[in-house]
Specification:
single chain; mainly alpha
Length: about 425
Amino acid sequence: MAASDPANAAMLDQRVARPVSPRRRVVRLPRGVLRYGQALGPTGIALALQFVTFAITARGLGVIAFGLYATVTALAAILIELIGCGISDVLVRGVARDAKSFPRHFGQMLVAFAATFPPVLLAGAGLLMLGGGLAMPFAVALIGLAGEMIAARFAASTESILVAHGDMPGAALVRVVTALTRLVSALCFFAVARALGLWVWVVLAQSIVLALGLCLYVACRYGRPRFVWSAHDFRAGPAFAVNQTARALQGNIDRLVLAGFADPAALGAYAAGARLLVVGLFPIQVLTRMLYPEFFRRGVSGIAATRAYARSQVPAMLATGLAAFAAVATAAQILPHVLGHDFAGSRQAAVLLAGALPLIGLQYLAADTLTGAGHQGLRAALAIGASIGSGLLMLGGVQVLGGVNGVVAGFLAGHALFLVVLIVASRLVALRTAP
């Protein structure tokens, strides 16, 4: 039948005019977007649970006791990175390259925790008591640090294990479980009591139960730990630990600095605003954890490959940082209404501190560029310098602008400067190692 035949032409017209099936109009989202959405959904639930827990805790303790407790949690956030000597990061690197190595890395992680937790805990409690200490007994500081560090260390390590195996939704669910157990503890405790000295014991009990549950879950899913001691892994771990500790110090030193220059009430209001900033960091951290293993895979080809990968992720990270800033700035408006008039200063502190969120997101990309290509030592050195510089900027800001305003100015300046240093450093390394 010829193409010019009328019957054939009619059939062709019908095929052209036939409506497109709705199935063909479906727009498929990129795999990375779907993975991020799957991880962020449970993370959003975890954020909501954490915010409710934070509000209950702040109202229950009151602005002065909450300020003291916030100092304990800030120090705990720094010290947890020393627990394990960076073996959790070594686990991510090893499992990302060879999933069968997990039992050995899991056993090393548990051994490192048992060996490092006691000295880190005692050192932290001693630091809180240094120079006269906070207005709390040594035992309260010790138990408070222990509870916060156990929960944070095992939750973060479990997330890293799941991320290394490519299970982002599972990692996000760990955040939900962690937040939910703390919320239940807060609801039960503050319904009958308000004393800080009793609250820290409740947190310790919740943290131990959570840690045991997470270890059992990981062992059932991926295999029992093999308790071994690899000298090679333990030599690599400290570089990760130093880097993570320096980053944690940069993000939490503001409350430690302010504790020396402000009254407990002002510290409590500021700490409430800073706590909202921590909530805003979660979407950025989810994206960072998704990208982290890929830096190691690209790093096999050198820093040029990791830099190219980091550049490709800048739009997504910048958008995430700006969205987190907008969310924190919006949520800050209701803080005094939720927490009470004693926390009125938390609104301004949260909005100003949230300006660092886009900078922090881009820092993660620039820093992981170095780590993925095997330059973890350089990253650690830069992070230490940034932490020291940030502390000095905050102290200088306090002298010029006064307590809260000076700390905020130093905080923002320190993050901006660190981002510039990381970008320049990765560029110089690329030039030096270029063939």
